[in-house]
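My main concern about presentation is that the manuscript never shows what a single data entry looks like. For the editor and my fellow referees, an illustration may be useful. For illustration, here is how one protein appears when written out as sequence plus structure tokens:

***
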Amino acid sequence: MQWLRFMNALDILRADHTRFRSLLPRLYDDSLPAEERNNTREEVEKLLKMHALIEEEIFYPAYKDATADRGDREMYYESIEEHHVIDMVLPELMPMNPESDGFRAKAKVLKELVEHHVGEEEEDFFPRAEELLGSAKLEELGRQMLERRSDLEQKWSTTMGNALRKAQTVAEKFTPTSVKDARVEANREG
């Protein structure tokens, strides 16, 4: 991850999107052993959670603060809602048997949700963010995102972090978007 140190916020997010596109089809690839699909599932969970957090805590609020345009704000809120839908599907996938038909179906749905979301971000959201934020701000946001991701990675790998992550995954499924939005605002201010 050292090479990411010099990337701006959009480069970091696009790199994650590339990883999603390569990992998600592996979840339901019957030619792979169940153990490998299980490991991929855990990697996907970690990447999706960290990606969503750095977007919601750092990137999205900067975008929202940079505009008063209704269309821009609609993209912001739609992206938050798409994260919420992904947060509902991912915890349902985690305990499933990777060899089951239900797992494969849910993995495909997750892939379609993520691909739709990242496609809209790359086609609409990111070009507008470049216009609104400019390169200096995107560089600053990139540094903040990498620092936050490093912190999240450390927490993820601890035993307590694993227990907390599992509890948060369940809680996130039932958390209304308005509460998530308030939490993002509180994190930015505190």
Observations:
- Helices lie at 9-23, 34-65, 70-93, 101-157, 159-174, 177-189.
- The mean pLDDT is 86.
- The radius of gyration is 17 Å.
- The CA atoms of residues 34 and 98 lie 6 Å apart.
